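quick one before i forget lol
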Amino acid sequence: MPPRIPVQLAAQCCRASIERSSPSSLVGLFSALSVQTRNASILANLSDNPGAYNKRIRVGRGPSSGKGKTSGRGHKGQKARGKVKPWFQGGQTPLVVQRGKLGFENLRAPVMSEVNLDKLQHWIDLGRIDASHKITPKELIQSNLIGTIKDGIKLLARGHDSLKQPIDIVVSRASASAIDAVEKAGGKIMTRYYTKQAITRLVAGKSFHTDEPLPTGAEHVEPVLEKTRQKGFAYRLPDPTARWDIEYYRDPAHRGYMSKTLQPGESPSLFFRVPPAQLSKTKKKQKGTKQEDTKLWDKL
């Protein structure tokens, strides 16, 4: 039976209608008393949204349900009696044993926060980032363009056509397309080595941004100490120690901040030297001539 309006609410409605009508009118009295018979049918029609509730399938409860007796598993066999592991291949030698695994997952690889050029331009249009000043990880994080501080920031080239003005930006890594887009707009880009702790200190104001690597040598000790006595102690940004990172930031193609330390003709690699110009041109082999048995490193 549909729920009815409460008695107290009906009495209030009756009282209000009686006061509005004349005391001598019996029609108004009976019409006021008839209010309590109205049904609140909206409460009786409440239901879930379509697809919000799925009826549970009850198996093994008789043949009329279609899932009785064998409960939809069929007759006999391993699948009817138990569970087959998803990696079971029928008893043959597993393929992972035959072929082995290809590659591995580097659990120590740095995790980078990705920033695209279209999102960066949108932040500049909103006034969250000032394009007239150098953009460092500190500005990117304080403007909430990057939420969580990770091991570094990588600049990607999505929306490279949306860059309107030249920018001067420093990030951990950058794709080749992003470097071309920034320099095509008249800007400047540099990649620098950061760590998660270094970025945290940079945002907290415990460290100051610099594009110069740490000086090496005894002659630099006293100037650094004198500068510290005058301005106070501040954490310096670290330099890379792994071979891959050192070679990355020494490479001018990546716009690394350590590329300025390279001598003319020096290779970014720590183990391979740039061959001389006369070795870059290969001589054509003549027919009937014996190949010269001279190693490449003998000519260096």
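fyi Residues 7-20 form the longest helix (14 residues).
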